[in-house]
Structure formats: C-alpha cells, structure tokens
Amino acid sequence: MAQRSGYPSDVTDDEWTFVAPYLALVREDASQRQHALRAVFNALRYLVKTGCGWRYLPHDLPPWPAVYQQWARWRDNRCFEHMMADLRELARVLAGREAEPTAVILDSRTVQSTPESGARAGYDGAKRRKGSKVHVAVDTLGHLLAAVVTPANVTDRGQVDALCERVQQVTGQKVQVAYVDQGYTGEDAAYAAAVHDIDLQVIAKPEGQTGFVLLPRRWVVERSFGWAARFRRLARDYERLALTMHQFHFLAFVTLLLAKGVFRATSP
Fold first, then answer.
1. What is the model's pLDDT at position 1?
2. 3-state secondary structure (DSSP) of residue 1
3. What is the pLDDT of residue 87?
4. Which residues pair with 106 in a beta bridge?
5. Superfamily of structural domain 101-240
6. CA nearest 228: which of 151, 134, 87?
7. In a 3-state reduction of DSSP, which class is residue 137?
8. Kindly report the CA angle at 68 between 65 and 74, in degrees rounded to 5?
9. Domain named Insertion element IS402-like: which ranges (predicted)?
10. How far are the Cα atoms of 73, 116, 146, 163 from residue 77, in angstroms, in the given order?
11. 215 in the Ramachandran plot: left (φ > 0), alpha (ψ -120 to 50) or beta?
12. pLDDT of residue 116
C-alpha cells in the first residue's frame, strides 16, 4: 500500500507537540482508541478547511464516524476555546502587548443557511439573507476572544451582554472598552456593556460619507472575518448544532495562530 503523502491542512510535528495535551481527553494508548489522535485531528482540520461533508472525508483518513465522535468530545469540552485562549496570550506577548487585552471590537457576520441548519435560521433584512449570525469579540490584533451564534434576525445590540460577559470571563475582567459600529447604538446596548464594566464606543462613518469607509479600530474585526472566510466549512452554515458552528470558529483561529508559530515561545 502506498504511504500517505498528507494534505496541506495536516498538523506539523511542532504544532502537534503543542496541541496534543489539549486534545488527549483519555490516554493515547487507551483500549477504546482505534485510530491515532493525530490522524483524527488531521481529518477534522481537512474538513473545516476544505468544507467537505463528513461522509466525504478521504479514505486515507480515519473513518468519518470516528472523526465525528471524537470531534463531539472536543466540541463539548470546548478544547479549541481553551487552546485559543493560550495561543492568543502568547501572540500578544510576542507582539509586545499585555497578555490580556483592555480593548475589544464587537461585530457580526451573517452566514447563509443550508437544509441542515435551516431549522434555526432567521432572515437578516439588512443583508437580505436567511441564515445564522456569528457575533464575535476580537482583540485589537484580531484574535478571537468570544463568539455567539444566533438566527440571523437577532439584532447585534441584543448580544452585547453575552459577548461582554464572556470577554470578561476569559480575560479576568481586564477589558475596559469595546468598539462597535452604528448597529450597536442605543441605551440598551451601552447599559449591557456597562454592567460588565465595559465602555461601549460607537465608531460612526464621517458625516455625509457613503459607501465603504475604512474606520479606525473597526477594520480589525473585518480582517478577522476575512481570515475566517478562508475556511470553507465556515462559508455557509452546514451545522445542525449552533455549538458546532461556534467551536469551528475557534478551531479556525487556532489553526491560523498555529501556522504563525507563536507556540514556539513556550519552547526552552
């Protein structure tokens, strides 16, 4: 049999050394394990990067039921969320910043629904699209801190409380200000942020300006959405569970930071 040559999405040896402790929920040599954990992780990365269906995973990767079952364990334990928190801290320190941010940017993107996700889809009148909204909070470097997945008809203002609560949880109450666009105007949104000791600052377009405008601070989250768009599984909402779409976003941002090699800062 020909030796497997691998795919561009495969984890490298250095990356695997870093991520393995986060993913080994049981011993590598546990009797119930039939497939190498690294091979399962490679299959998951292949799926998220290429956007293929579970049953269309290549045959030189572990069988899709085994990959899905292990993914469900990682998803429910929020392994990639924990991994992202540590990678984000490393990336910030290497960039000469404090480990935890004091400022974040909030925004949302609407993802087109599919038959699998249609049961929880809503219609976004502004984008004229039926699907889900992924509400995110990123730091000023564009790294993901928190995410909330809702039907697309849910307003951005309505998720300020959930995002700010999660942001303060993961940063240890360090965030002081959140930058947002005009979709977050109103006393309710400002109050929801203030409850969590965050000052909500709306960055508006210059008066009389129409069309696309590169706004201070706000462009960072747009770049983050561009990074996410490189993962085809995130281009549409193929997931029956909102938690799956939620955790796939963390996996995508983990993959991006692993590729930058920030984890090498932990090496002796």
1. 39
2. coil
3. 97
4. 137
5. Ribonuclease H-like superfamily/Ribonuclease H (3.30.420.10)
6. 134
7. strand
8. 145
9. 11-83
10. 6, 23, 16, 19
11. beta
12. 92
Distances (CA, A) of 216 to 78, 142, 180, 233: 32, 13, 10, 30
Widest CA span of the chain, in angstroms?
Answer: 67
Map out the domains of the chain as residue ranges: 13-77, 101-240
Torsion of CA 188, 193, 196, 197, to 10 degrees: -120
Which residue, chain included where needed, has tokens 């747009």? 222
Q: What is the pLDDT of residue 267?
A: 56
Which helix (H) or strand (E) covers residue 147, if one does? strand 144-151
Low-confidence ranges of the chain (pLDDT < 70): 1-5, 26-33, 206-216, 265-268
Kindly compute the dihedral angle of the four CA atoms of residues 169, 189, 120, 247, in this order, to the nearest 10 degrees.
-30
DSSP state of 138: E
Task: Please state, in angstroms and as integers, the Cα–Cα distance from residue 131 to each residue in 119, 224, 237, 245, 253, following that order.
Answer: 10, 20, 7, 12, 22
For the question of whether the overall pTM of this predicted structure is more than 0.70, the answer is: yes
Q: Position 248: which residue type?
A: F
Q: Which residue is associated with the tokens 């292949």?
A: 46
Q: What is the pLDDT of residues 177-211, one digit of tens each?
A: 999 998 999 999 999 999 999 999 998 876 656 65
pLDDT of 208-247, one tens digit each? 566 555 566 778 999 999 999 999 999 999 999 999 999 9
Rounded CA separation 10/8 (Å) = 6
CA angle 244, 74, 59 (to 5 degrees): 85
Inter-CA distances, 40 with 60, 181, 261, Å: 11, 40, 21
- State residue 151 phi and psi, 5-degree precision: -60, 150
DSSP for residue 2: P
